[in-house]
Design brief:
Layout lengths: L1 H49 L6 H7 L8 H4 L2 E6 L5 E5 L11 H9 L5 E6 L2 E10 L2 E8 L1 H76 L3 H28 L6 E4 H18 L3 E6 L4 E4 L1 H18 L5 E9 L2 E9 L32 H11 L3 E7 L2 E7 L1
Parallel strand pairs: 7-9
Antiparallel strand pairs: 1-2, 1-5, 3-4, 4-5, 6-8, 9-10, 10-12, 11-12
């Protein structure tokens, strides 16, 4: 159990770190991408409007807030092409680019003009280019600018973020793994102290309970039975049962590393059903069973029998008057599906998520005629967890169903 707790802590810490790194590095990449692309389109727009003009100083000053300088026009590598409505090249200027040969011009222009967007970024021969289409009368002016360095910066940051994120995650996993034992240690000590307290308190309580029970018997022998002595005996028995259940639950938690073996579940369930037939008849309850033969599971024989007993006791105890308890055991793929259902008209609106919590009882007053301590289902969950199975509860008016998959 503690190993699982450590692994869960490591998993949660690692996942939290991964989410934080993803958000931080993702935000940095997204902001950088948007800024670089915006800068590309700003320069492309500037070149498209001023490729044939020499700007005055006043015009350059207006563009400085967009990182446009007198050198921008000369730093950029670009090509301008004039295309008519039919897509034929009327004129072009390749004086400001060296990566495109004259022989490649037609393919290059065709590749760029094939896009429907007015502007965009594409890759040609391993290099990145940004294009902008503008109308000049009946002619389309196509400006294509080399933006390989800008796109390379984006790709470099992306790869760098992946490397840093992965390295950071590995470092966090290593550090958390080293310190996880110390983080979980207080919970381990607290859990052990609780179990030790339950064991010690149980032993200490058994003696005074035995004395009270013996004294009550003596009083009954001398003065005869009365409602007071019967009440005392009843409460002593209840307290003794509670102590026994607490001890069993404590021992279950200590046996987390139990060795599982092949158990004939069909035989175990049938055996428990035989003992509950008379109890069901006494309580005027109809017991319906549908048990498939030859179903084997990996479990502890004594623990499996205790699990079935707990669910059956719970079903009979909380079944409506003259109601029905239905038990089913069948194969489901490679697993065994065991269900216990009973009529429970008062089950609507109940929070079934808490049913397996220790000491949970739907009757908050604890004065219900159906005596219980809210320990049985918690024990059932512990047993199922030990058998590496699953337990669930569902309600469909007026029937409550417990389902176990092993």
């Amino acid at each position: 159990m503690y190993r699982k707790l450590r692994l869960k802590f490591i998993g949660i810490a690692t996942l939290s770190t991964a989410v934080v790194l993803f958000i931080v590095l993702g935000s940095v990449n997204l902001i950088t991408y948007r800024n670089i692309v915006s800068d590309i389109y700003t320069r492309l727009d500037f070149i498209s409007k001023n490729s044939d003009a020499i700007l005055e100083t006043e015009e350059i000053e207006k563009m400085k807030n967009k990182d446009i300088t007198p050198e921008t026009q000369y730093e950029a590598r670009y090509i301008t092409v004039m295309v008519d409505d039919a897509g034929n090249v009327i004129d072009f200027d390749m004086a400001h680019i060296a990566a495109i040969e004259n022989s490649e011009l037609n393919d290059f222009i065709k590749y760029a003009t094939s896009r429907d967007d007015a502007r965009g970024i594409f890759t040609y021969d391993g290099l990145s280019y940004a294009f902008l289409k503008t109308s000049v009368g009946n002619v389309v002016k196509l400006t294509i600018m080399d933006c390989t360095r800008n796109i390379s910066t984006i790709n470099y940051l992306k790869r760098f973020s992946i490397y840093i994120g992965t390295l950071g995650l590995l470092i966090v996993m290593l550090m958390v793994s080293i310190f996880a034992r110390k983080v979980v240690e207080p919970f381990v000590k607290n859990s052990k102290a609780q179990r030790q307290f339950i064991t010690n308190a149980s032993h200490e309580l058994k003696t005074p309970l035995a004395v009270i029970s013996a004294n009550t018997e003596v009083i009954e022998m001398i003065s005869g039975k009365s409602e007071w002595t019967e009440s005392t005996v009843k409460q002593v028995n209840r307290l003794s049962e509670l102590i026994s259940q607490l001890v069993v639950l404590s021992r279950l938690e200590e046996r987390q590393d139990i060795v599982l073996s092949d158990v004939d579940m069909s035989a175990e369930v049938s055996s428990v059903m035989t003992s509950f037939k008379s109890i069901a008849e006494t309580n005027d309850i109809t017991l319906v069973t549908e048990i498939e033969d030859g179903i084997h599971v990996m479990a502890d024989q004594k623990g499996l029998r205790e699990l079935v007993n707990i669910l059956m006791d719970n079903a009979v105890k909380y079944c409506d008057e003259k109601g029905t308890v239905a038990v089913s055991l069948a194969r489901k793929g490679k697993s065994a599906l065991f269900t216990v259902s009973n009529d429970y008209a008062a089950g609507e609106g109940v929070d079934y998520r808490q049913f397996f919590d220790r000491f949970y009882r739907e009757d908050k007053s604890h004065n219900s005629e159906k005596q219980g301590y809210g320990i049985g289902l918690s024990m059932a969950e512990s047993l199922v967890r030990m058998f590496k199975g699953k337990i669930a509860v569902s309600y469909k008016k007026p029937v409550i169903t417990f389902t176990i998959t092993l």
